[in-house]
Amino acid sequence: MTRSVIKNIGKVVTGSIRNPIENWESLLITDGKIDGFNVDLKTTQDVQHVIDASGMTLIPGLYDSHTHPVFGGYSPRLKIMDWIESYLRGGITSMISTGELHLPGRPHDPQGVKALAILASKSYRNERPSGVKVQGGTLILETGLKEKDFEEVASAGVRAVKFIEAINDGEEAIRFSKWAKKNNLKVIIHCGGTSLPDVPTSTAQSIIEVEPDILAHLNGGPTPLSINDIDYLIHNTPWAIDLIRFGNFKLALHIIEAVIKIDALERVILGTDSPTASGMEPLGILHLMTSLASLSNLKPEQAICMATGNTSKVYTLPAGRVEIGAPADLVLLDTPLGGLANSALESMKAGDIPAIGMVMIDGDVRVLRNSLTPPTQRKITIS
Ligand SMILES: [Zn+2]
Fold first, then answer.
1. How many Å is the maximal CA-CA distance in the chain?
2. In this structure, which residues have their CB less than 5 angstroms from ion ligand 1?
3. pTM above 0.90, yes or no
4. What mean pLDDT is predicted for residues 108-119?
5. Ligand 1 center to residue 68 CA distance, Å?
6. Domain range for 189
């Protein structure tokens, strides 16, 4: 049995957007899972490590809900190695692939897209880049796929499909969505203008017909739908709203205020769309959460829940909440040294991105002295 305790926690952001903050002072981790709160160290047996958080804010490890990995940490689009390791330093412990679109020579036939989805899904399950949990292998939908293809990819471990190509026949697109749902595959749809040369522009009308689960980059990737189409989808559908760092930020703020008004905060998930032509941004989710919390009526803890518990709920994944039995994927956040405020949450409201003191995956400390965020004001000690 491996056990550790994190003590002297300032605040806990739970990842649960309806109950985002708890004042647990300490947390017990047993064999990589969260096992208790407010631990009495004198009576708890077999504790190997005690991590003193010195008042920092504990949050679930962050999700990036919108990425385009290919294999491992290599990005052919920008010819960068180990990009996922840098994102880990930005607090990302899980990533959702919204399609391995950047593979050179990406196939466009049913056999090819199926093979790519299965291969990417299996390779990311076999090896986690720098420990980060990548849900890879999203099936990119192409004309000609049959119902048995959806059954085959689902049984091989694929968990999502994505509408990105022009499906010539609207009826076929509707069938794809039904077959995907029948096989417990989440249906993601590209929203808005053309991002890559082979991606068509979509409209609210074309999106509504296929009844997706997730409206990918509703604020544009990078070009959004019209504001009327966006408002229509917010007010007339229940689907998850994916907001991305590399989209239209003016519309991201518009969407957040609309969602606050109709009390639908659990629908929003946060991603970057990395790697993009705009670049790689390991701190992209920290910047997105901070910008939303500082420039809208969203509370910082709600922004954090959008990048943690909301995403895990939409994709039915175990990590993303600080609760008993959840994987101990955890991040300690602090106000940056010399920053405007005294805690991570106050810093975010003031517009300062928080500093990351520690990143843990399944109870293992993966990042302690972080070279990518500003230094923390408080210091972590491990005994
Ligand atoms: Zn994308």
1. 67
2. 98, 221, 273
3. yes
4. 97
5. 6
6. 62-282
